[in-house]
Inverse folding.
C-alpha cells in the first residue's frame, strides 16, 4: 500500500493511542500539524482501503477478572476451515490462525471470571472437531502489544500497560451495571465522524463528556490497556508472521525473556506452560515482509541469547483477528 508521510505518522500515532476526546480528530490534527478535516478524511480513506481494521478499547483481561490462554489444536487438514469457523464464532476468541505444524490451529481465548478456562478451551476445540488440544496459558508476560513502525523517523513506543505484566488471577473488579454497559459500548468499532462518541452517548443516554470521562477512568484504573487502532498489517507489507517457540533452561527464563522482549521486532513475548510432547516454554512473535526476514531476525536473537533449541511456526491463514469482547 502506498502511504505518504502524514498517513504513516497518523497510523503510528493511533496504534499507540487514539485521543479520548469529544473531537479526537481535532487533537490528532494538532499533534500531526494537519487540518482536522484532513485527518478525518485520511482515517476514512485508510479504513476504506482496509489498512485500519478497527478503532476501539483494548481492555486488560486480567484486570477485568478474565482468564486468557493460547490454545493449540491438531486438526485434520481437510477439516481445518470448518473447525476454525466454529471456534472463531466464540466471542472470547480474538485470534485464530492456521500454522505449519502437527498442531496446525492456534487461537487465543478469554474466559469470564469463575469459568474453568482449560475446560472451556478443550470443550470448544474438541467440540468443533479437533483431534487433540494443548492449553498453553502464560505464566509470565514479558511484552504484549503489536506496533508496526511505518515511517523513517525514530518512534518512541509507549509500552505502558502493554509492557510486562502479571498473569496471576485477580478478583473481578466491582463494576456497576452502567459501567459494564459502557465497557460493551467502548468495544464497538469507532465510527469515523467528527464526534465519534456522540452515538455511544445516545445509546447509553449519557453525555459525550461522560463517555469520554468513563473511558479515561477505565484507563487510569488499569481496566483498559489503551484505546487505539488495529491495522491490517499484511496490507502494509508485514506478510510473514513467525511465532518463535523456544526451549529455555528454567534458570535462564527471566534473562532470556527480558532480552528477547527488548527487541523492537518482537511484538509479544510470553513464558508458557509445557507438555511432555511440547517442551517449548518461551514464545515470541515477529512480523516481517518475508519469511526469510522473520527467520533472520529470530536467528540473530538466538545467537544473542545462546539458545539453539527453537522452532518457528508461520501462519498460513488468518481465520480471525479482533479485539476480545468482554461482558457479552
Amino acid at each position: 500500500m502506498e502511504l505518504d508521510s502524514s498517513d504513516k505518522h497518523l497510523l503510528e500515532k493511533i496504534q499507540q493511542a487514539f485521543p479520548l476526546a469529544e473531537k479526537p480528530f481535532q487533537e490528532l490534527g494538532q499533534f500531526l500539524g494537519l487540518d482536522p478535516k484532513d485527518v478525518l478524511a485520511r482515517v476514512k480513506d485508510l479504513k476504506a482501503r482496509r489498512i485500519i481494521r478497527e478503532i476501539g478499547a483494548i481492555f486488560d483481561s486480567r484486570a477485568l477478572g478474565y482468564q486468557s490462554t493460547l490454545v493449540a489444536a491438531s486438526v485434520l487438514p481437510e477439516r481445518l476451515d470448518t473447525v476454525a469457523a466454529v471456534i472463531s464464532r466464540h466471542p472470547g476468541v480474538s485470534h485464530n490462525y492456521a500454522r505449519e505444524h502437527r498442531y496446525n490451529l492456534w487461537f487465543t481465548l478469554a474466559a469470564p471470571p469463575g469459568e474453568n478456562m482449560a475446560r472451556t478451551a478443550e470443550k470448544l476445540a474438541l467440540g468443533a472437531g479437533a483431534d487433540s488440544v494443548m492449553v498453553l496459558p502464560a505464566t509470565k508476560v514479558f511484552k504484549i502489544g503489536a506496533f508496526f513502525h511505518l515511517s523513517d523517523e525514530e518512534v518512541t513506543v509507549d509500552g505502558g500497560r502493554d509492557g510486562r505484566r502479571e498473569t496471576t488471577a485477580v478478583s473481578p473488579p466491582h463494576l456497576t451495571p452502567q459501567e459494564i454497559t459502557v465497557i460493551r459500548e467502548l468495544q464497538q468499532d469507532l465510527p469515523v465522524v467528527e464526534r465519534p462518541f456522540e452515538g455511544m452517548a445516545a445509546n447509553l443516554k449519557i453525555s459525550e463528556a461522560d463517555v469520554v470521562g468513563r473511558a479515561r477512568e477505565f484507563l487510569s484504573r488499569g481496566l483498559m490497556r489503551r484505546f487505539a487502532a488495529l491495522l491490517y498489517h499484511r496490507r502494509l507489507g508485514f506478510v510473514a508472521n513467525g511465532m518463535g517457540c523456544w526451549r529455555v533452561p528454567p534458570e535462564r527464563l527471566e534473562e532470556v525473556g527480558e532480552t528477547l522482549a527488548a527487541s523492537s521486532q518482537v511484538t509479544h513475548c510470553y513464558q508458557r506452560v509445557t507438555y511432555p510432547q511440547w517442551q517449548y516454554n518461551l514464545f515470541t512473535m515477529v512480523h516481517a515482509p518475508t519469511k526469510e526476514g522473520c527467520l533472520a531476525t529470530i536467528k540473530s536473537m538466538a545467537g544473542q541469547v545462546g539458545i539453539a533449541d527453537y522452532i518457528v511456526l508461520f501462519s498460513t491463514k488468518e481465520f480471525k483477528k479482533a479485539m476480545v469482547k468482554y461482558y457479552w
Summary: The first strand starts at residue 52 and ends at 59.
